[in-house]
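Predict structure. Chain length: 101.
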Amino acid sequence: MKLGAVIGRVTLNKTVPALLGARWLIVSPFTREHFQRGTETPVGLSKDPSLVVYDNLGGAVGQTIGYVEGREAAQPFDAPTPVDAINAALVDEIFYNPFQK
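Prediction complete.
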């Protein structure tokens, strides 16, 4: 699972029948720099490309989510579904204590 910040939503005009009524989020993935800020809330755009994530948990803009990509993203569906990333968790807080030598 990866973490990212929801930076927007997607509205589709047409979609495949298996995904009618689905919610989609635009997510900026967290990088190492997000966690190295210490106790600050990781916000802001990543240098990595943003991605579109299928959302069945109700994620909102500005919220931190955990998402999975690839084959695992299609596992919650009964039939094969063309989904590459899915929202797996709504994150309340992040505690990060880097290893110090």
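Summary: The chain has one domain: 2-91.
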